[in-house]
Amino acid sequence: MIEVKNLTKRYGNNLAVKNASFTIQDGEIVGFLGPNGAGKSTIMNIMTGYLSLTSGSVAVSGYDILEYPEKAKKHIGYLPELPPLYTDMTVKEYLSFVYELKKAKFQKKPHLDEIERLVNIKNVENRLIKNLSKGYRQRVGIAQALIGNPDVLILDEPTVGLDPKQIIEIRTLIEKLGRHHTVIVSSHILSEIQAVCKRIIIINQGVIVADDTAENLQNNLSSDHAISVRIQGPEETALKVLRSIKEIESVQSMGIIESGSFDCVIQPKDNCDVRRAVFERMAERKWPVLNMTSNRLTLEQIFLRLTDASLTPANGGDTEAPEKAEELSETDKELARNAVFGKEEK
Amino acid sequence: MGAIYKRELKAYFTSSLGFVVLAIMFFFFGYIFSSIFSSDYNNISYCFVYVNIYAMMIIPIITMRLFSEERRQKTDQLLFTSPVKLWKIVGGKYLAAFTLYALCYSITLVFEIILMTVSTVNWMLYLSSLLGTFLMGGALLAIGLFISSCTESQIVSAIIGIITSLFIMMLDYFSALFNNDILTSVCNYLSFNTRFNTFASGVLDFSNAVFFLSFIALFLFLTVRSLERKRWS
């Protein structure tokens, strides 16, 4: 279990992390999400004891990282943003060095063998690390974190710079690891986090702006349960029919977008699910529904909404200029979206 | 500590730096020994006196990468997040550097054996010189290790180390330069060479040993502090 209380980190005058608090239970897979420079790595470096903190406290498995650093560090396996590899060693030598460094309690050969098999680096164990590809280096980095079988794994951007196939491999590996470890993964790419983590902590400008499951984030933040429909049929009569459905609060026509059809936005009563009713009514009259989409915010939109505005006073964050978000032009938003959600699959 | 010691020592020889250092030191030794040998001396401590001057330039090369390289490659993140006390990391690295340094002097044993075949050898004088060498070298290695912990660049680390060595070497020269009694005595007190020369002349002065040992302790402590400080900045 990890307990972080009121964590604050200052670099000179620069406030890198402000009053971050969260608790991570055993066996959770938690994602740290935030744009570049949000403070994810700083928080991870503090949790692992690499950096100190300005105020607050971090406890790993009950041991305070400042008071009992050795005991706390024994419970953590850490893969920093750049895997800490000695490139002049072979994979085997390197893992053996880390094993001795961490004074692991397991029998050496079977323990290292098991890890090599788990992260799939058995075939390169005799190669020099400097000759390995980025994907393999990343896996050696993960192997290093697994030595000593720590309860908590902290992986800082484990998939950055990998090709799509490797990303999927690492993702599967993280899922596998999550069965026996508490895992904390950071990323600035949303799909990455969404794929493996049940709980998401969104960090922006050093402040935790949201901390919840992906589902709850979507439910709570998108108050809008409306659906958009495109129907091929006579607009006036169709609207009348729709309005006669008793679960529907209101129907607003959006005009013709595709010729021969019309678009409208349906607002249901008390968040009822009206999709089936709409479909059946239209089908009775042979007016095909060409399109039906929920207006629920995607996680991506939620993320942008939260990070666009450091301003959202969620969790007591800065409250400066809440209008700022609205002022952002569309191009700005597009830029932000590209920066944040990257074209990682390309 | 053992793991770091082993790794560092191995790294000296996989990066060929270890071989280069050994080759240079052996060359100096061979050159000076040959001149001693041809001029009918049987006292090898002269060899130490001369070679140690070169060694002062070599020591910063031995220590330059110890912490600089870790920081540049970000491998310090592994060391400082593993359950090992900071002083053990510093100790492991220091001992590895010291081992390489000591290996450089292994060749003097060969010279002694050669001398033994043609003359009588004063083994006590040899051991006293060796002890003095290791104490003085140990102090310089500690200074080098500290400098390495202050910078990310090996080159900067080596250059500052060499300048420091030069300064220490010139303390004797400075002491003659000043007319001021206090400055002269400070220079004499800090002079590494004067203290080493007592060892080389076969005098085991306890205060000289303490002087070098406290230098080693001070700079190893400063290294730990310098690494610690980085966490807090």
Q: How are the SSEs placed, and which strands pair?
A:
The complex is a heterodimer of chains A (346) and B (233).
Chain A: E1 2-11, E2 14-24, E3 29-33, H1 40-47, E4 55-60, E5 63-64, H2 69-74, E6 76-79, H3 91-101, H4 108-118, H5 134-146, E7 152-156, H6 164-177, E8 182-187, H7 190-196, E9 199-204, E10 207-213, H8 214-221, E11 227-231, H9 235-243, E12 248-255, E13 262-268, H10 275-284, E14 289-294, H11 299-308, H12 324-327, H13 330-341
Parallel strand pairs in A: 3-8, 3-9, 6-7, 7-8
Antiparallel strand pairs in A: 1-2, 1-4, 4-5, 9-10, 11-13, 11-14, 12-13
Chain B: H1 2-14, H2 17-38, H3 45-63, H4 65-73, H5 76-81, H6 86-104, H7 107-118, H8 123-150, H9 154-169, H10 171-177, H11 181-190, H12 192-200, H13 206-232
Description:
The complex is a heterodimer of chains A (346) and B (233). Among the domains of chain A are: 2-75 and 150-220, Rossmann fold, CATH 3.40.50.300; 223-294, 2-Layer Sandwich (Alpha-Beta Plaits), CATH 3.30.70. Chain A is 36% helix and 25% strand. Chain A has helices spanning 40-47, 69-74, 91-101, 108-118, 134-146, 164-177, 190-196, 214-221, 235-243, 275-284, 299-308, 324-327, 330-341, and strands at 2-11, 14-24, 29-33, 55-60, 63-64, 76-79, 152-156, 182-187, 199-204, 207-213, 227-231, 248-255, 262-268, 289-294. In chain A, the strands form three sheets. Chain A has a six-stranded mixed β-sheet with strand order 6-7-8-3-9-10, with helices on both faces. In chain A, strands 2-1-4-5 form a four-stranded antiparallel β-sheet. Chain A has a four-stranded antiparallel β-sheet with strand order 12-13-11-14, with helices on one face. The longest helix of chain A is centred in the middle third of the chain and has 14 residues, at 164-177. The radius of gyration of chain A is 25 Å and the shape is elongated. Helices cover 85% and strands 0% of the residues of chain B. Chain B is globular. Classes of the chains: A alpha/beta (346), B mainly alpha (233). The interface between A and B is medium-sized, with 30 and 25 residues.
